[in-house]
Amino acid sequence: MAIPNVSNIFKTLSPDLVIYDINQAWVPTIASPFNILVVQFMTTGTTVVSYSIHFIKNHGGVEFPFLEIKLREFHEKRYHNTLLSAVNHPQNKQDAPVTGKPSYNILLFNTFRELEGKYIDYLSVINEKKVVPVGPLVQDIVDEIEHSEIMQWLDKKGESSTVFVSFGSEYFMSKHEIEEIAHGLELSKVNFI
């Protein structure tokens, strides 16, 4: 229902650039007649997107090059079927393939190179678009004294030996979900924050 209003805003303001997120996949179509440059901003990280695009482009025939990202057979089939269904049979007009012409060959992601560098690089290659990490966008003010205990703990751990668990700033887990994930992490016997 926002499309007519957004179109009117584009016509009235005539912006040079519009940055949109995945929930407004129709923005390039609306911006195209006004020759407005558009850039998509992804609120997710690049790992799952690179995995998904790899699968779509290779139709599951080529294994994902990063072995640490591997779904078990049942989950892999289920994920791939869901992904193919979403691509081939969008449920509504907003999910349909974009018919507008995105003018910029850039994707912005809410991530940073130190966390997902190899996935950023791989996604740039397979998607043929420059992937620019711009996150994390929301940063808490860190009280060095308050967090020194965590930093001391981390300093005692080997490089790449600790799992950082985060579900982003837009998802709030129930107490039960937190307990289940914590239980699974404890059973795995890995270091985690």
From TrEMBL:
Q: Which terms does the UniProt entry file under GO BP?
A: carbohydrate derivative metabolic process
Q: GO MF annotations for this entry?
A: UDP-glycosyltransferase activity
Q: What is this protein called?
A: Uncharacterized protein
Q: Which organism was this protein described from?
A: Camellia sinensis
